[in-house]
Amino acid sequence: MSFKSRRAQRLGGASLLLLGAAATPAFAQEPAQDKSSTEIPAVTVTAPSPIVRRAVVPSRNAGRGTRTARVRSREQTAEATPAAQAPAAPQQGVLPIVTNQFATVTVVPNEEIRREGGGQLGDLLFSKPGITGSSFAPGGSSRPIIRGLDVNRVGILENGTNAGGASDLGEDHFVPIDPLATNQVEVVRGPAALRYGSTSIGGVVSATNNRIPDALPSCAPSFQSYGLPTKAPLASAATSPCVTAETRTAFSSVDRGVESGVLLDTGGGNFAFHADAYGRTTSDYYIPSYPYLTDQSRPVNGRQPNSATRSDGASIGGSYFFQGGYIGASITQNDSLYHIPGIDGADHNTRIDAHQTKINVKGEYRPDAAAIDTIRFWAGATDYRHNEIGLADPADLNTDGIRQTFTNKEQEIRTEVQLMPFNARFAEVTTALGFQVGHQELSAPSPDNPGTLFNGLWDPNNSTRVAGYAFNEFKFTEATRAQIAGRIEHVELHGTTPDFPADYLPDGTPQTPIARNPSFTPKSGSIGLLQDLPGGMVGSITAQYVERAPKAAELFSRGGHDATATFDIGNPNLTIETAKSVELGVRRATGPFRFEATVYYTHFDNFIYRRLTGVMCDDDFASCGAPDGELNQAVYSQRNANFRGGEFQSQLDVGAFRGGIWGIENQFDFVRATFSDGTNVPRIPPMRVGGGVFWRDDNWLMRINLLHAFAQDNVAEIAETPTAGYNLLKAEVSYKTKLNPNPFGAREMLVGLLGNNLLNENIRNSVSYTKDEVLLPGIGVRAFANFKF
């Protein structure tokens, strides 16, 4: 059998599933017998828009006029807002589709996070349509990539504030948000950039948890089941002292990994408190074959050398509830020690020892005012530091020590005011106004060259951002809505950089550092339309104009970055980057056939990217051009570029089977990115297509899914190699049930098994700098257990 024939045979199943779901709309008209296929709770998201529309009920003052009161009305006190009132979570295994937003939103609910696992957000989102992960160090360092855009164009948030860390400064740096302590992840494209800043031009990844409680815990159902007395009716039982707990545990075979977490929530009166602690450890993970394409002489024992990880963290927080709102705070500690795989990493035993302390504050107030609906605010302060540790001389173990240090001290405040809707005759108009200010101070000293001019990747630099934004939503009818949003921000940066290469002297004379204080005023705007369509579908169209100011690393970098094996050269003359985008989407969230389809086109003026020159360097400018250099020279540059692509995913409940529902699901995504001269933008994800079958009932979920990634041959002209395609086969089975109530035991259980890369394929990630030296993990099984008390 020829290679092409074998490839066609392997793709046959996934292709038939994809075509079958697209070509059989008739099945969607025949609802399955089990109501679980059609009664799907709404997906609740918080990141896409500052405008929150609530249902209305008759007000106590309704007899005085037409005014209505919100469900969470001004008359409500803290006692009337228990957590039990929160919207129901999506059913286990049901594809969550968001239809009330003006651009595509991917939601990973809590139960899916528990089933899928992953040490980093990039690992968790790796296979989602339009999203992948950088997987620089699987399990230790993997940042989400959205539609081929990463680092300085993808914002990462936790509970509404910047995640902090240094993952946008280098692909080898970890994202200080662990899925083990996360309850939901939202990936937002489109107008969300205007809410969070120009550095979210590609999208926003928002993780949420209960570290700052926004509702009082409710134990009333459990008290009732135990036959214990309650001090108040069920609607306000949360005012009684209450404690809930949850344990999250998993074991993985491919890396002999162990992870565990404990979450506690308690509250009484007007107070609620949360505490959590977690930890995970993995060994070097197993790989299907020899990992190094460029050097076949190194001994490998069946595992990816230098790929072990260890991380842990803890958090404590609380909130005070008062009439009309709440205010809360939390403090979180994240620690991680992980190795960097690859030839250079293995030779030098490179690892990163990272620590982050983060303080967050947030609150909400619904004043008794005619014009203001809600006031919300978020504030955060981050103190981050990591050391890049390794051998200065691979042959001398006594040279092990700190090779590079990164620090990031960052503060941010964001506040939003949502105004009461008003009737503008042609539409009901709701406006939200926001203000944001942030400050960041970075440093990257190196002990290898103390006291020299080129001490580290850059001298200490700092930046300040001040921004204002406005969102306006127009409800023309129940079926037609529009949004107009705008943002203006001012960015000031302060740093030092040498003039390279113009002022560099061939004899090695050091240049005189030049202080730089550039400032930028990016301006952005968007317009969108949502339209209900027949058959329960919703169509959307969004147009955006977004400007992004260069970041400090792009302007001031000027030295070796050991973990990524690059010698980074900033460009202090970079100008504002501009993106003009159009996105069209059609989505359907209810019924037996659920899907979303999106196409988009983005034109960038002055697209900023890290261009590999093909020149090799060591640890200073004078070494660049040496034939035996270990670092790839990378120069921050600007060119016009075009990104176009599309995403599709669907799920079809075919029919009833043995008391449950069986069906098929599939996905497809691609992005094509070229510069204005037709050459390729570097490190772009490949086209992918996948499909599978599932069966579920009230307790069980069984699924098998094959994702095929095509070969990526559209690579940069210099220093980037093609990437072979692969097939990623996954299967899972999980069981969820309520347990017999008792005062001390668990009340709910979720257990299961997940098999990953069951074909034991060689998988290389085309977006990684070290893809020719690092294979993703081979065949493995993950066992997990989640208990709620």
Largest sheet: 22 strands, antiparallel, barrel
Proportion of beta-strand residues: over 45%
Q: Flag low-confidence runs.
A: 1-38, 55-89, 220-238, 502-509
- Tally of contiguous helical segments: 8
Mean pLDDT: 84
Helix content: under 10%
Query: What is the tally of beta strands?
Result: 36
Structural class given helices, strands, pairing? mainly beta
Distance between the first and last residues' Cα? 56 Å
Which value, in Å, is the CA radius of gyration?
26 Å
| Cα shape | globular
What does this structure look like?
The structure is a single chain. This protein has about 800 residues and is mainly β. Helices cover about 5% and strands about 45% of the residues. The chain has a 22-stranded antiparallel β-barrel. A hairpin with a 2-residue loop joins strand 11 and strand 12 (about 270-280). Mean pLDDT is about 85; it is low at about 1-40, about 55-90, about 220-240 and about 500-510.
